[in-house]
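Help needed: design a sequence for this.
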């Protein structure tokens, strides 16, 4: 996949597109990291909500790093089946 030493902020600016079905999934929100080995395990993209991405689904796409086909200037191309990488978003404690 070429040079993968990139800053997280540059990944957040790239749209994630699934080449299986051509769907635009959104933008990288977070990374899952193996802290023992210091490697990125997955990128995390919020699933689209029903209304402006604010209300509706409370899920994330957790796309394994090895499902990334290419990281370009503007997009990240992934090859994955969304039903296998969808996870409920962890609930946040407010108090």
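Sure. Designed sequence:
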């Amino acid at each position: 996949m070429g040079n993968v030493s990139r800053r997280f902020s540059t990944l957040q600016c790239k749209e994630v597109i699934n080449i299986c079905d051509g769907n635009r999934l959104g933008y990288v929100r977070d990374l899952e990291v193996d802290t023992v080995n210091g490697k990125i395990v997955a990128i995390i993209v919020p699933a689209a909500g029903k209304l402006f991405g604010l209300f509706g689904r409370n899920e994330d796409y957790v796309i394994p790093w090895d499902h990334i086909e290419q990281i370009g200037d503007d997009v990240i191309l992934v090859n994955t089946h969304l039903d296998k990488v969808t996870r409920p978003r962890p609930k946040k404690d407010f108090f």
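Strands lie at 15-18, 24-27, 30-34, 39-46, 59-64, 68-71, 75-78, 86-88.
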